[in-house]
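User: My collaborator sent over this chain with a note saying "see what the structure looks like." That's all I know about it. Can you take a look?
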Amino acid sequence: MARARDRKDRIVVLGGGPGGYEAALAGAQLGADVTLIEREGVGGATVLTDVVPSKSLIATADAVSAVRSSDILGVQSFLPGSEGKPVRPEVAVNLAAVNKRLLAMAGAQSVDMLNALQEAGVRVVHGEGRLDGPNAVVVSTAAGDSGTDFDRIEGDTLVIATGSRPRELDSAKPDGERILTWKQLYELRSIPEHLIVVGSGVTGAEFANAYRTLGAEVTLVSSRDQVLPGEDADAAAVIESAFKRIGMNVMSKSRADSVTRTEDGVLVRLADGREVTGSHCLMAVGSLPNTQGIGLRAAGIELTESGHIYVNKVARTSVPSIYAAGDCTAMLPLASVASMQGRTAIMHALGDFVRPLNLRNVSANVFTAPEIATVGWNEKSLSEASDMAKAVSHTIPLPVNPRAKMVGIKDGFVKLFAWKVSGTVIGGVIVAPRASELVFPLALAVEHRLTVDQVASAFAVYPSLTGAITDAARAMHMQYGVEVVE
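Assistant: Without extra context I'll predict from the sequence alone. Here is the result:
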């Protein structure tokens, strides 16, 4: 129950991405007077130029892959050749139409979110905002021929949800035509002849996979030993192998020094002196928080060295009246985390029941083919915490699963982690098509501290990919609670 109030709380939200949207919606639902300020459109970059369009592009790539691989299921979508032998079909991808569709879809989702806010009673202001102390935001809005109007909006609680932007390097400045950030890819009218992707983190890996599947020649420049260095090492090895199998050129231990335009493409110079030429280059070298020039330090807000806003587990900043959510904070840069931070901030500010965020329980996904879904502890985090000896794990290769065999899955696995003494499930990794959908049972197990025996006792449909989860849990029955003597 929210606390009893003899006046209407005033909430001002700066930024309309997932964190800001959920904060505004939660505030309105709890009876507050809410104003949301957004400069681009409700949903922010997540909806308009990042997650929604990129995952829509990946869905198109998945469709292309499904058509190309249908022959393994006995489906022949081609006519016989001159000698009666089947001819492999050519899948035509109209990238201009694809990009038009996904941007229109992103715009429609933004409008739906705007309507939801307005129906809830939220005042939405289109403009640029900056803090004016701990309890007010000054907003600059376009005022036609007269220039710019400024409006000062006061609030008892402020929520900063300004998101992030692609990191740019002075030696590889994006031009929107040949050297691109992930926000600029949707302006392409045709499949790049040869796309060089600099950066093998989640964004670089996802786009490299998608464009290779769509038909582009792709070179992935990775400064690390393995692609996806932040992911489970076994999972990353599966993805790198899959990349090479579809014809991607993966250049490991190769740091890019500069990217320049040529007469008809781009030239990427590596630190070791090698050069790579292509038609286009995608710079996927991380992101920066949108925290500059909006009055944060003047308001007394503590920032990290990287410019992110420091927040605690209820999304509160160092200033009691100001909260923050999303990629501008020093939390995990995930839309789901941003949304939870936004709601948590408002519920805490208004005295409603709130559970502090526990990042150990957060599910995450890499939308490559196959996908990588993770939740909770893994080998790296256990090792860093010196808890590896206290845990046990078990891995089930996905190709042995009956359902996987039926649909032709050749890569992937399910890996579970549990405490050795109690058998409590503490984490998991799933590498599979639609792993993002399969990880939810593991997320529930981690959130509610289920044991492997409790997971194993649940009935999984036969045949199903989720059966691999119960299989892994059953295999762990004899592992936990038993002291392993070496």
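A starting point for your reply to your collaborator: Confidence is low (pLDDT under 50) at residues 1-6.
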